[in-house]
Write a structure and sequence with these properties.
Length: 142
C-alpha cells in the first residue's frame, strides 16, 4: 500500500452519538497487519467512510490558544472532543475528552482516557474534593 498513515481513528456510536478513539502511532502497523489478516481476501483495502462527516469533526482537533480556555464552573459545560487540562497530584493533564457519562447531572463523569479509565466526576472537581484540581476546558468548534 502506497503512502504513509499518520493517524488512525476508530468510530463508534453510543446511544446515537458518534465518538472517535485514536490509536497511538506505534500500534498502527500491528493494527493494519491484523486488519488485513481478518479481511475476507486477506488484504487491507481502503474505501470512503459511510459517515465521513463524523470523522472530519473528530479529526478537527487542533491545539487551543490560551484565550479559548475556560475555568470549569458547572456540570454540563464539557463535551466529547473538548480539550481539558488540570493537575492530579504533581502531574499536569492535557487531554481530549473521550466520553461524558450522565451529562448535565450531578453524577456527570468526564472520561479522557477510556483505555486507562482516567476520568473525573465534575461535581467533585467543582467542590474541590476530586484529585483533579484546577480543571479548565477548551470547547471544540464544530
Amino acid at each position: 500500500m502506497a503512502g504513509k498513515f499518520t493517524k488512525v481513528l476508530f468510530a463508534v456510536e453510543l446511544d446515537g452519538k458518534p465518538y472517535g478513539v485514536e490509536l497511538e502511532s506505534d500500534k498502527l502497523q500491528q493494527l493494519l497487519h491484523r486488519a488485513a489478516e481478518l479481511s475476507p481476501d486477506g488484504q487491507l483495502s481502503l474505501s470512503p467512510m459511510p459517515n465521513q462527516q463524523m470523522f472530519e469533526v473528530v479529526m478537527r482537533k487542533t491545539p487551543a490558544t490560551e484565550t479559548e480556555w475556560q475555568q470549569l464552573q458547572a456540570v454540563g459545560q464539557i463535551h466529547v472532543g473538548d480539550r481539558i487540562r488540570c493537575t492530579v497530584g504533581d502531574k499536569k493533564i492535557d487531554a481530549h475528552v473521550a466520553l461524558v457519562l450522565n451529562p448535565g447531572t450531578e453524577s456527570e463523569e468526564v472520561v479522557y482516557d477510556s483505555f486507562k479509565n482516567f476520568y473525573f466526576i465534575t461535581s467533585m472537581a467543582l467542590e474541590g474534593t476530586s484529585s483533579h484540581k484546577g480543571v479548565e476546558f477548551c470547547p471544540t468548534s464544530v
